[in-house]
Write a structure and sequence with these properties.
It comes from Synoicihabitans lomoniglobus. Keywords: Coiled coil. This is DUF1641 domain-containing protein. By secondary structure, the protein is mainly alpha-helical. The protein contains 9 helices and no strands. The chain is rod-shaped and about 170 Å long.
């Protein structure tokens, strides 16, 4: 028959003490690990700080001839004195940014509409015709001298009056009738007229009216006094 030995209160206390000791050792190991990490971090930060300090010193040495010690103080005082001005500038900057944000879609639409208008003008041939007009202008510049252009400018009023008179409805009708009659004449079938036959044609009413028109035209032409030339 086997007998079971029950743990005594002392054994239970020893086991509890061992468990607590294990936890303490674990905490000690954790503290040691954290201390090592802190030491490593401190070393890294120390090296970084030294490098940063050395770089800062080098950069400051480059600008040292151009900066005085009191400049920073003056700058700080100026910033403090102009705090309200800086605040207003920031407000205006924010307003400009908001305006730019609102105007951007409008600018895009305007740019798109402009491209469409230019494309439409291109399809209608404005650019090609414009190039031909430029070529014609080049020919005019090459053909006429500066003196010719100056005389043209001096006589521009007379030319415009002449064009105005030529574009009157009665003048256009007369020119159109003359051109229409000229088109109807077949010069290949025009008959030869002897002096006697020509004399008989002159006696016809329409010929007499034509001769009368020529006489009146020449009489008025000779009686017309041209305006004196401009000095």
């Amino acid at each position: 028959m086997t007998t079971t030995t029950e743990p005594t209160p002392l054994d239970a206390k020893l086991d509890a003490l061992d468990a607590k000791l294990d936890r303490v050792l674990e905490e000690v190991d954790e503290v040691r690990r954290m201390r090592r990490e802190i030491e490593e971090l401190k070393d890294d930060l120390s090296r970084v700080a030294k490098d940063l300090f050395a770089t800062t010193v080098t950069e400051l040495e480059e600008v040292a001839p151009f900066v005085r010690t009191g400049d920073f103080t003056d700058l700080a005082k100026r910033l403090l004195r102009n705090t309200n001005t800086l605040d207003e500038m920031l407000i205006q900057l924010e307003s400009a940014r908001a305006l730019l944000a609102d105007a951007t879609p409008l600018g895009r639409k305007l740019f798109h509409d402009t491209l469409e208008q230019l494309d439409e003008l291109d399809h209608k041939g404005y650019f090609d015709k414009g190039q031909e007009l430029l070529r014609a202008l080049d020919n005019v510049v090459a053909e006429f001298s500066v003196e010719d252009v100056r005389q043209l400018a001096d006589n521009a009023t007379t030319i415009l009056h002449t064009v105005k008179n030529l574009t009157q409805p009665e003048m256009l009708d007369a020119v159109d009738n003359a051109l229409e009659i000229y088109r109807k004449i077949d010069f290949n079938t025009v008959e030869e007229y002897s002096p006697f036959r020509a004399f008989r044609e002159i006696n016809k009413p329409e010929m007499r009216r034509g001769i009368g028109f020529m006489i009146v035209f020449l009489r008025n032409l000779s009686a017309h006094q041209p305006p004196p030339p401009k000095s």
